[in-house]
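> run fold AraC family transcriptional regulator
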Amino acid sequence: MKLIKLDRQSHDDCSFTINHTRDRHFLKIWHYHPELELVLILESTGTRFIGDSIAKFTPGELVLLGPNLPHMWLNDPVYFKEENEELQARAIAIHFKQDFLGADFFTRPEMRIPARLLQAAQRGLVFKSIPPEVPEQLKNLKHLEPFERSLSLLQLLKELAALDHHPLTGAGYLSEAYNTGAGNFDKVYEYLYKNFRESISLEDVAALIPMNPSAFSRLFSKFHKKSLMRYLNEIRIGYACRLLMEPHERVSEIGFASGYNSLSNFNRQFKKVTGKTPKEYAEIHSKMS
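> ok
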């Protein structure tokens, strides 16, 4: 499946764009762009592909995507049939760069809350239990004057940060997105991303801090809500997903290239993380090509 870079920057002397999409179906292109994207689905159903995440979408879903995160909302087959002209795909999409209000704007202490949200959006976020005022805010943005529009977007980001939200992609999908907010954990992230294809032990990683392995394991699990080995598996599976999207190797070769010494273990860990086998995952993406 070919990945296309799209131009989403504003050409109307504005710092961000607001698009109200209404068509027979959404754009059937696996694409990315340097802008963040906030998307509210108003009408239609289908399957969303975001990084290594594959899931159904329905009206009312709200998603925030980080920069350069590949994605596509693929409508169900019924939306592509000529006889179903009454069906529509509608959405509101806001595109903005992280520096749309200035290079250092989100580094200010007052912007700490929305800045954390934008950092988390590197993996893509889906919001749960959206209050009714949020869709209304999104619908009204386009009708505001430029100054009020910018303030309203900032307020919206602050409100979204307080809502229940979950990452979409695995920890390993964005191999360059090291988390830089956890002090000495930076050494751990860098080590894992550089060496995940090799055999890694808890003792090896704990020595980087340095800490007692048992104490480090408890700290890591408390901070990430998952064990070190689970985190490492997500990195490896995220990398494997990227290879499976451009099928040029056999599944067994991809497994070994991702740090697994046996095909059976690779298949087992892949399904544990994604809910699908590597073959099933590859077939889903090949049908979109």
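The first strand starts at residue 4 and ends at 5.
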